[in-house]
Design goal:
Elements (H helix, E strand, L loop, with lengths): L1 H84 L3
């Protein structure tokens, strides 16, 4: 009876150690997949940063052009109001 118990303990120990080894290799595999996914995301994010910088420049240029147009319209409005009121 004692030999059977020790045999059972040995089998359970071997099973548990095998399961732990298997899970360890699976976790290592997942870690490498996560690292690869992170590298792909980093490269995509870097590419998007360049696009965002380009779009930012375009928006700033459009803002400057719009400010210039508003300034010119303000000058025209001032001139129109001066002529309408009979100012200088």
């Amino acid at each position: 009876m004692e030999a059977q118990i020790w045999t059972l303990i040995g089998l359970l120990t071997a099973t548990i150690l095998g399961a732990l080894f298997y899970l360890g290799t699976r976790i290592d595999g997942l870690a490498s997949r996560i690292d690869a996914q992170g590298a792909r995301l980093d490269s995509r994010i870097d590419g998007l940063n360049g696009r965002i910088d380009g779009l930012t420049r375009r928006v700033e240029e459009q803002g400057k052009a719009l400010a210039d147009d508003i300034y010119k319209l303000g000058l025209k409005l001032d001139d129109h109001l001066r002529r309408g009121i009979g100012g200088p």
